[in-house]
Amino acid sequence: MKYQNKPYTFVELVELKVSDLEKSLVYYQEIIGFKVLEKQENKVLLTADGKTALLSLEQRANSLPKTQKTTGLYHFALLLPSRADLGAVLKHFIEINERVGAGDHLVSEALYLTDPDGNGIEIYHDRPDTEWTWNGEFVAMDTLQIDAQGILASGASTKWVGLPEGTVMGHIHLHVRELAETEKFYNLLGFEVVTPNYPGALFMSTGKYHHHIGLNTWAGVGAPPAGENVVGLEAFTLVYPSDEELKAAVENLKTNDMNVVEENGSFVTKDPSQNKIKLIVK
């Protein structure tokens, strides 16, 4: 999990608006395997290790169903420590008859699910970065059929007891209205394109990870943001390795006339598609 630690900038907490908190909580505990870190009347923080919040669920009054053809969350992605862990969770999904999608992305093997409100979830493990194929500055990625039997065999002796403690938020993938302007925005935050030629999408990272942030226009070029009360993404947090690098990102935003404000110990901004981002140092 080196790319989700210093000296890299990475995604940590993803905040979701949900229509029914108790229904979502059952799903994320029993199906996905999260533990409750903190619970309030209308909000829950979920964790894998009992210390770090990876997902926030909040029920808003008068919430509206998820809308299509808008910007926002495509999926958030939980990175497991090993292929054996992926095998254990795949076996769990089979045993409970949970419908999943899957893809071999060359750099990783992934499973895909959708929560009760239609929010996308990826659960994956990375192949060793020494096995990734680079063409200059760009890493090779694809979507191929997974070796499900091989994954299950890897996890044959690993019992599923929920998300393993080493699970982290590996990346986030967003619907955006346009790629070029969005790329420039995330450049200001310190991210570089590592996969530029995926149809309708860009993948960006720090430190040559295969991606911390995915961006796509699959909801349509020019797609509008969802309304404030619509379920889905509320915000996500980027963790910077130092005060100096956070300050540089904030100054980049201000110099380029991007709105950024300080709230409750973090800086808050929005990308050109109105996806809300919190910038912090831990």
TrEMBL record:
Cited Pfam families: Glyoxalase (PF00903)
TM stretches of this protein: none
Family annotation (Gene3D superfamilies): 2,3-Dihydroxybiphenyl 1,2-Dioxygenase, domain 1
Name assigned to this protein: VOC family protein
InterPro entries given in the database record: Glyas_Bleomycin-R_OHBP_Dase, Glyas_Fos-R_dOase_dom, VOC_core
Record domain VOC: where: 10-126
Species annotation: Psychrobacillus mangrovi
